[in-house]
Specification:
Layout: E1 5-8, H1 21-37, E2 41-45, H2 57-67, E3 75-78, H3 84-99, E4 103-109, H4 113-124, E5 129-135, H5 143-156, H6 165-175
Parallel strand pairs: 1-2, 1-4, 2-3, 4-5
Helix pairs in contact: 3-4
C-alpha cells in the first residue's frame, strides 16, 4: 500500500543527540519503508525532553533520515509530543488533518505495536486507515510496562468517543500527567479549525 505519510515514533537519545538502538531501529525501518512504498512524507516525533540537552529528538531523527537519503522537503518534524498519546494527537492536529491525509503508517518497536495501534486508532478515529508496524528490538521484558501504560491510557480517556478532538484535548490538559503539569510543564493547546 502507498501511504500518505509514515509517522516514526522516537524512543530515546543521549545528551549529544545520539539515538538509542530502539530509535535507530524504528527510523531505519521507517526510511526503508518510505523508499519501498513511495510514501509522500515522513514525520518524526518528539520534544526536547532531556534536561541536559536543548535538542529535540524529532529534529535529531529528521536529520538522521536526511543522512539516509530522505529529501529534506519530504520530512516533517512534530516537536510537541511527549509520549505515544502526544505522537498521535499532535501529528493529527498539526500535520495530518490539514493535509487531508487518510492512509497512515506508524513505525515503532515490535513490543510497542499493540499499544500504539490502540492509541492511534482512538486519537485519530474511524476516518483514517492506520497501520502500525514494529521494528526489531532487543527488549524482551516490556510486557508488564506496556500493559501498565495501556491501562493508564484507558483510564485517562475512559468514556470518550474515539476521534473526538475537543474532548480528547480537554482530557489531555486536565488528566494526562505529561501534559497537565503533574510531570512536565503544562502545555497550552489550540485545536485546528
Amino acid at each position: 500500500m502507498v501511504y500518505d505519510c509514515i509517522i516514526v515514533l522516537a524512543n530515546e537519545m543521549d545528551t549529544d543527540g545520539n539515538l538509542n538502538n530502539d530509535s535507530l531501529s524504528r527510523l531505519n525501518q521507517a526510511v526503508k519503508t518510505y523508499f519501498s512504498n513511495s510514501s509522500s512524507f515522513l514525520i518524526t516525533c518528539g520534544w526536547n525532553y532531556r534536561k541536559d540537552s536543548s535538542l529535540y529528538i524529532g529534529n535529531v531523527m529528521r536529520d538522521y533520515a536526511i543522512r539516509l537519503g530522505v529529501p529534506p522537503d519530504k520530512i516533517i518534524a512534530e516537536l510537541n509530543s511527549r509520549d505515544t498519546v502526544g505522537d498521535a494527537f499532535f501529528t493529527k492536529q498539526n500535520i495530518v488533518f490539514g493535509k487531508g491525509w487518510k492512509k497512515l503508517l506508524v513505525v515503532t518497536s515490535d513490543y510497542h505495536v499493540k499499544r500504539t495501534s490502540i492509541v492511534f486508532g482512538f486519537i485519530y478515529g474511524s476516518g483514517y486507515n492506520i497501520d502500525v508496524i514494529g521494528s526489531e528490538s532487543q527488549k524482551n521484558d516490556c510486557t508488564i510496562s506496556e500493559m501498565k501504560s495501556l491501562e493508564s491510557f484507558k483510564k485517562t480517556f475512559k468514556n470518550l468517543k474515539s476521534g473526538d478532538d475537543i474532548k480528547i484535548c480537554e482530557r489531555m490538559l486536565n488528566k494526562h500527567p505529561f501534559y497537565n503539569g503533574d510531570v512536565y510543564p503544562k502545555i497550552s493547546l489550540t485545536l485546528r479549525k
